[in-house]
Each structure stands twice: as C-alpha cells, then as structure tokens.
Amino acid sequence: IIILGIESSCDDTSAAIIRNGVLLSNIIASQKVHEAYGGVVPELASRAHQQNIVPVVDQAIKQAGISRDEISAVAYTRGPGLLGSLLVGSSFAKGFSLAAGVPMIEINHLQGHVLAHFIQEEGVEFREPRFPHLNLLVSGGNSQIIIVRDHLEMEVIGQTIDDAAGEAFDKCAKVMGMPYPGGPLIDKLAKEGNPNAFEFSKPRIKDLDYSFSGLKTSFLYFLRDQIKENENFIEENQADLCASLQKTIIDILMDKLVKAAKQTGIKEITVGGGVSANSGLQNALKAEAEKRKWNLFIPKFAFTMDNAAMIAITGYYKFKKGQFAAQDAVPFARMSIND
Ligand code: ATP
Ligand code: FE
After folding, report:
1. pLDDT per residue as tens digits for the range 231-247
2. Interacting residues of 178 by C-beta distance below 8 A, sequence separation 6+
3. Which residues bind Fe cation (predicted)?
4. Which of 13, 246, 15, 66 is nearest to 5 (CA)?
5. Measured between alpha carbons, how far is 292 from 122 in angstroms, rounded to an integer?
6. Atom 16 (ligand 1): residue with closest C-alpha?
7. What is the pTM assigned to this prediction?
C-alpha cells in the first residue's frame, strides 16, 4: 500500500509518501510571507499553497523513488484549518484521484498529529505506543487531552475553553514585540533566563480543561505596569520573561496531564502538535515520566509541526479499513477530532 499524503491546512504546504507504514519522503514548504504581518494572512497562504503544491508533490514522489502509478490512494487534510488553504489541498487531491484513478481519503488534521507516532522510518528504531494511550495535543489551534483507544478511535477528555497553548506563546511574544510565530523564539530565549524570575497567575479551570486567555491578559497588564516604571523593561528582562512565561504554560499543561493519567490509570503517554517541540515541555514530560513510570513518546521535530507524513500515515490506517471519500467531499474549517 503506497499512500500520497497532502497537508495544506495552514501555512505549510507538504506532501509525503508512505509505503506500508514506512515513510519514504516528507517535503515541507514553509511560507515566509507571513512573518512581516505578525500572523498568517489567509489570502496569502492559499496563494502560496497554489504555487507550492505541484512542485512539492513532484519532489515527494521523486525523493521516494517510486513512480506515480504505484500510488494506491491520495490522503489529504479535510480540516480543521483555513478554508482557502484547505481548498488548495483538497482540489489537488480530487484532481490527482481522478487522473490517476485511485481513491481519495479525507483526513482530520488533529488525528494526523496524534498518529504521528506511528510513522516508521527506514533505519530508525520504531517504538509504537500501545492502546489505550493518552495524547497531549498542543498546537496553534488546540490544547487537548485525548484517550486514543485505537488508530481511528479517539475521545477528548479535556480541552481548552478559549486560547490554545500555541496561541498563548504567540500572543505573549507579540506583546513583547517579537515576530510570528513566537513559540520557537520564546523557547530559545527561555534557555538563558530564570523561570522563577516572575510569577503569572494560573487559571482555575474545572476537570481536565484548559484556559490560556487569562494568562495572556495578565502578562499584558504586568508588562504595562512595569513599562510605566522602566521603559526598557522588556529588553532588559527578555530572557527571564520568556523563561517565566514558558514555565507557567508548561505547569498548566502538565498539571492536567498528570491528573488525566491518574484518573484514567493510563501510563502510556504521547504528545503532539507544534508546541510539543518546546524543549521545556519535553523536559517536564521526561521528568514526570521518570517519576511516574510513564512510557513516554515525543515526536521527532519534523513530525511536531504540520507535515504530510502524519496525514499519509493516518491515510494508511483508513485505507486498510476501506474508508474512502467521495468526489463531492468539502473541506471544513472547524472540525473536532471525531468529525
Ligand atoms: P492545529 O494543528 O491546531 O490546527 P496549527 O497546525 O496551526 O494548529 P501547529 O503547526 O501544530 O499548529 O503548531 C504551531 C504552534 O506551535 C505555534 O503556535 C507555534 O508558536 C508553536 N510552537 C512551535 N514550536 C514551538 C516551541 N519550540 N515552543 C513553543 N511553541 C512552539
Ligand atoms: Fe497542526
């Protein structure tokens, strides 16, 4: 079974080839145009996807060393994401499916993030999470805790009621005058700072849910007060601010994850989404895993961000179940993990 995966939900155009669960290629074209605007501009994103999609797919097929007619099916991201961006990937998939005479498989982007742990690579030792496992999905649009019962059977047991963790990173970075996306930059600067230099309040949210909008607001007010006293406050304290902010976000994330693991009795833990690349979060997860005897899975960097390999692997499992899409399938901007 050879699956061509297509990902175009936000600002990365990506194509990947997976043969029987093993990754042969994973090409990602990131869009630089958005940096100057402090966030992703939907119109520019879909235009860039249009420019990138054909060369990216060509390169993925070439690098995989296969020929086009060996492909068994094309899997593409149906949602959630930016509608204009999703349309480019889904239109391409429909065209490819018709031209090549192969079935089309629609993929939930969030399931893709969760299943990134099942991507095998040649020459890389493969550890596979068992079922059920708990997944902490932390990305630009989502922060949730999921019980993964099988490849395609997931249950959300906690989620953010407002902003996502990635948004908290990005919005606070913006307040400090940093470029978009701020998450990776905060991670880098935090390494030089003192995580206990400043204290920001943590939300009191029930059960396993998250909230990050209050943190952003209190961070903004805190800076505003400090700048009144010292107009160079941000520049002079940048590393400490990043370290303290990052620690607060990590504490919030870990607190509910530990609670979820205790409540469910599940010790098989996976993490995914862009924020799972955060070095502080990875360290906190490793420390907790050591302490609580968790069997922890952290994706390699290329699989934390948006990529088509995770779409192709999800397509592989749907292919085996015969779950194909019709030509009139439409993309959805908003989708939960079970849609
Ligand atoms: P979703 O998957 O929910 O639709 P998305 O695809 O936009 O959202 P991802 O691409 O998975 O989200 O993740 C992007 C987010 O990850 C951004 O908010 C970015 O700041 C954050 N991020 C990336 N690297 C790091 C890092 N090292 N530390 C903290 N945050 C990071
Ligand atoms: Fe994503």
Report:
1. 999 999 999 999 999 99
2. 185, 186
3. 109, 113, 306
4. 15
5. 32
6. 274
7. 0.96
